[in-house]
């Protein structure tokens, strides 16, 4: 009986702490959508946007009058004994003029709300860039691993053939050892690439806010025709123009200027008087003592207008205006710098695409040449026309060319897509 209880307890604990492993098969677009839906940091920024929306809506209601009710009851004890009296009333007030502060506050909250949206756009762009880079790195690992696996098969066949040749005295022991060393080197390359692939896949899961124990399979896009990435490249001037219209950094800097201008207006508003109107109505309620009990139902009404005129604030208003004007000048300088930064970033990104395309074309031809050369050398080696050293040297040349081709291939894709992000285009593969 005791054993059954222990087993039941262990099973219950396992059920409580066991977590179901989920499996996903994602394209790049799926990764982006999943990250947007599950990023806690992004959700926090969305909540900040909702808070700004609430503040904006509430500030628009500041033009309306308020309304409050009051109810009071007083008890007192004197020579005549205990007595009580009370009253009820309604009061309302409205701001007629306050130096434009209500209007400026409304505009300020609207600008803050729109700036928060632009900040979310910037966060999304940065997230997409990180996901894109990680996604393409995994794709590069997968492609390299596929070719390395094929090379490993060839190395194993070469080593097996070398053992046969060594047994019949066709090659020296040193040649056999070279073939064996090459086989183990190629095997180690496969292991290293697989480890890199797993680490990069884990990094991608982190970016997606995905549980690291979940299974994620990357859907490889068609990357056979990369000429389109270059032939559809807009002119450099057009790329700059598109980026200037889209970049969230410029939008945020522009909003900062608008906010600084509103701060100047609000500071100047302190020079002007404020006018308020109010109205109140009330009446007495039940009043009693030990001699009598009666109702007071005669209402009392009042309406008034008040004005507050600033005369002297010890220079505080003037100082606030000056400081807000300085902040406005700083915001304008920051905007000019942001414009310069965007132009420099887009021009550099554009040149990176052109350079990446040239590197890709060179590495493509180089990989193709070394691949055919390696096949020819391998065939010659089988017939004993070249040495083992010559064969392995050509094989290593091919592997280096292959690795460079894959790196340049995905570098071109990444740099072109980053330029697309700067231009505000939708990212897909």
Short summary:
With 429 residues, the protein is of the alpha+beta class. It has helices at residues 2-17, 28-38, 40-60, 101-167, 173-207, 227-231, 236-246, 248-268, 316-382, 388-422; strands at residues 23-26, 66-78, 81-97, 215-218, 274-284, 287-288, 293-294, 299-308.
Write up this protein.
The protein is α+β, with helices and mostly antiparallel strands and 429 residues long. The chain has helices at residues 2-17, 28-38, 40-60, 101-167, 173-207, 227-231, 236-246, 248-268, 316-382, 388-422; strands at 23-26, 66-78, 81-97, 215-218, 274-284, 287-288, 293-294, 299-308. The strands form three sheets. Strands 2-3-5-8 form a four-stranded antiparallel sheet, with no helix packed on it. β6 and β7 form a beta hairpin. The chain is elongated and about 135 Å long.
Name some characteristics of this structure.
single chain; 429 residues; alpha+beta; four-stranded antiparallel beta sheet; two-stranded parallel sheet; 10 helices; elongated; disordered N terminus
């Amino acid at each position: 009986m005791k054993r059954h209880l222990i087993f039941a307890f262990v099973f219950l604990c396992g059920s409580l702490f066991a977590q179901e492993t989920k499996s996903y098969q994602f394209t790049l677009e799926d990764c982006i959508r999943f990250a947007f839906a599950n990023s806690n940091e992004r959700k926090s920024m969305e909540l900040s946007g909702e808070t700004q929306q609430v503040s904006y809506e509430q500030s628009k209601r500041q033009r309306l009058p308020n309304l409050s009710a009051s109810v009071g009851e007083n008890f007192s004890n004197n020579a005549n004994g205990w007595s009580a009296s009370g009253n009820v009333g309604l009061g309302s007030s409205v701001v007629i003029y306050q130096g434009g502060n209500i209007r400026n506050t409304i505009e300020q909250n609207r600008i803050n709300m729109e700036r928060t949206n632009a900040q979310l756009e910037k966060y999304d762009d940065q997230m997409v860039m990180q996901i894109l880079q990680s996604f393409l790195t995994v794709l590069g690992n997968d492609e390299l691993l596929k070719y390395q696996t094929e090379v490993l098969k060839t190395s194993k066949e070469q080593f097996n053939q070398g053992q046969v040749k060594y047994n019949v005295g066709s090659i020296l022991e040193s040649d056999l050892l070279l073939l064996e060393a090459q086989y183990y080197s190629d095997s180690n390359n496969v292991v290293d690439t697989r480890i890199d692939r797993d680490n990069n896949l884990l990094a991608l899961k982190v970016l997606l806010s995905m549980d690291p124990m979940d299974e994620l399979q990357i859907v490889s896009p068609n990357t056979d025709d990369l000429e389109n990435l270059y032939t559809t490249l807009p002119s450099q001037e057009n790329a700059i123009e598109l980026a200037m219209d889209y970049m969230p950094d410029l939008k945020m800097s522009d909003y900062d200027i608008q906010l600084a201008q509103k701060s100047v207006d609000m500071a100047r508003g302190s020079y002007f008087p404020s006018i308020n109107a109010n109205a109140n109505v009330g009446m007495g309620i039940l009043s009693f003592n030990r001699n009598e009990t009666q109702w007071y139902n005669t209402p009392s009404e009042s309406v008034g207008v008040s004005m507050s005129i600033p005369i002297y604030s010890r220079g505080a208003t003037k100082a606030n205006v000056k400081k807000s004007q300085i902040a406005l000048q700083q915001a304008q300088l920051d905007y000019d710098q942001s414009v310069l930064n965007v132009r420099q970033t887009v021009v550099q990104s554009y040149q990176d695409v052109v350079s990446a395309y040239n590197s890709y074309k060179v590495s493509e031809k180089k990989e193709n040449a070394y691949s055919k050369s390696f096949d020819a050398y391998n065939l010659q080696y089988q017939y004993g026309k070249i040495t083992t050293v010559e064969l392995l040297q050509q094989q290593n040349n091919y592997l280096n060319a292959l690795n460079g081709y894959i790196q340049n291939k995905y570098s071109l894709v990444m740099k072109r897509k980053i330029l697309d992000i700067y231009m505000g285009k939708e990212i897909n593969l």
